[in-house]
Amino acid sequence: MFSMSEKELGKKWDRCLADAAIKLGSGLGLGIVFSVLFFKRRTWPISFGSGAGLGMAYANCQNDLRSHYLQPRSQKE
């Protein structure tokens, strides 16, 4: 039926890990900035930013890995 080559799967995993690193770093950075500037150095903005970044990366990765199995919708004329 559907078979994904190992090379294609490896590329998707590489994209997922790179995306996760970028989003985790961005969330962590924004969390630190908000913690220092607005929340009197509390730790919850850092945790929230990191979690939100990882959550977005997980959702993107899940969609990317499932995209091979999704059927495109046919256009009605």
TrEMBL record:
<comment type="similarity">
    <text>Belongs to the MICOS complex subunit Mic10 family.</text>
</comment>
<keyword id="KW-1133">Transmembrane helix</keyword>
<comment type="function">
    <text>Component of the MICOS complex, a large protein complex of the mitochondrial inner membrane that plays crucial roles in the maintenance of crista junctions, inner membrane architecture, and formation of contact sites to the outer membrane.</text>
</comment>
<keyword id="KW-0472">Membrane</keyword>
<keyword id="KW-0999">Mitochondrion inner membrane</keyword>
<dbReference type="Pfam" id="PF04418">
    <property type="entry name" value="DUF543"/>
</dbReference>
<feature type="transmembrane region" description="Helical">
    <location>
        <begin position="20"/>
        <end position="39"/>
    </location>
</feature>
<dbReference type="GO" id="GO:0061617">
    <property type="term" value="C:MICOS complex"/>
</dbReference>
<keyword id="KW-0496">Mitochondrion</keyword>
<dbReference type="InterPro" id="IPR007512">
    <property type="entry name" value="Mic10"/>
</dbReference>
<keyword id="KW-0812">Transmembrane</keyword>
<comment type="subunit">
    <text>Component of the mitochondrial contact site and cristae organizing system (MICOS) complex.</text>
</comment>
<protein>
    <recommendedName>
        <fullName>MICOS complex subunit MIC10</fullName>
    </recommendedName>
</protein>
